[in-house]
Write a structure and sequence with these properties.
Largest sheet: none
Number of strands: 0
Strand content: under 5%
Radius of gyration: 25 Å
Length: about 90
């Protein structure tokens, strides 16, 4: 199973590839005359939205990773001698 750091990296790479292959590929095909302008706009919008969604998924994985790290750090069981949250009252 992939951990959250690897999942975030994979989603970031999917977002980058979506921009490179989708948006730039659509523009290149339009400039070469293989597709119409309207089709280029539709493809660029589709791949742009997909890249945006993939980047947000990567950000969510990173937030989950940081939250899991914070929970792991806060769930440490302290020794009873050091677990006192306030100092003991002493008689004067």
């Amino acid at each position: 199973m992939l951990n959250l750091k690897v999942k975030a990296f994979v989603w970031n790479m999917i977002a980058v590839l979506s921009v490179l292959l989708g948006v730039l590929g659509s523009m290149s095909a339009w400039e070469a005359g293989n597709i119409t302008f309207i089709r280029m706009i539709v493809q660029a919008a589709f791949f742009g939205v997909f890249a945006y969604a993939a980047a947000n998924t990567a950000a969510a994985a990173k937030r989950a990773m940081y939250a899991a790290r914070r929970r792991r750090r806060n769930n440490v069981v302290n020794h009873p001698a050091t677990a006192v949250s306030r100092p003991a009252l002493r008689a004067a």
